[in-house]
Amino acid sequence: MTSVTPRPVTAYSDEHADVYDLIHTARSRDWAAEAEAIAALVADRHPDAASLLDVACGTGKHLESFGSRFRHVEGVELSDGMLRIARNRLSDVTVHHGDMRTFDLGRTYSAVTCLCFSVAYMATADELNRALRRMARHLEPGGVLVLEPWWFPEKFLEGFVAGAVAEEEGRVVSRLSHSVRDGDRTRMTVRYTVADSARGISEFTSYEMLSLFAAAEYEAAFRGAGLTVEYLEGGPNGRGLFVGVSPRGAS
């Protein structure tokens, strides 16, 4: 059966989750290398780090690699579709269903990560602050928070377009995106076409709103959560990384 009318879906719907790993591998994502680099950042600041929590862990690709660097890893994910895939991938890892603004796991970790610009789905600076405080509360004394931001306002490219095609046996997926500025947020339209040998051709479109927080807003959120903060240029996808450390005397 073939559907030719793009259907609107929410970000990280089941349809999106089912093609996420395939299409982003085609876009040259290397989750293992990213996890290795982030684990090294953590070890530099907390050599005895033994546990890690990945917030907005998606399909669990980073967690899969973090598991070889930390004795204990867990994840938190809001999307039901992503959560399903992560739990199937990581049968021996606990992946919690939760919102980064409100989750409470009742324990602390040596490191907390929030990658793939997931924090940019926070609609306001207040939500950003709430999320950072929640992550910081899950850090042990001396624990490390690593956060990947979305673009800063001055670095956003108006009208940016991107495309990718991915293939595996019995399935081809294409992804086209177009991003524009909408006030202090990015409005991104992403259209997917999926050709499946058993189900024919279908299309769906996701509409994503990503906040263009300034560097100073991220830094204020870290400090407001009681963490130190430093910004490292580059990072996994060119947007850099914010790294914070919890006070050694924290309880």
Automatic annotation (TrEMBL):
<keyword id="KW-0949">S-adenosyl-L-methionine</keyword>
<dbReference type="InterPro" id="IPR029063">
    <property type="entry name" value="SAM-dependent_MTases_sf"/>
</dbReference>
<dbReference type="GO" id="GO:0032259">
    <property type="term" value="P:methylation"/>
</dbReference>
<keyword id="KW-0808">Transferase</keyword>
<keyword id="KW-0489">Methyltransferase</keyword>
<dbReference type="InterPro" id="IPR041698">
    <property type="entry name" value="Methyltransf_25"/>
</dbReference>
<dbReference type="GO" id="GO:0008168">
    <property type="term" value="F:methyltransferase activity"/>
</dbReference>
<feature type="domain" description="Methyltransferase">
    <location>
        <begin position="53"/>
        <end position="143"/>
    </location>
</feature>
<dbReference type="Pfam" id="PF13649">
    <property type="entry name" value="Methyltransf_25"/>
</dbReference>
<protein>
    <submittedName>
        <fullName>Methyltransferase</fullName>
    </submittedName>
</protein>
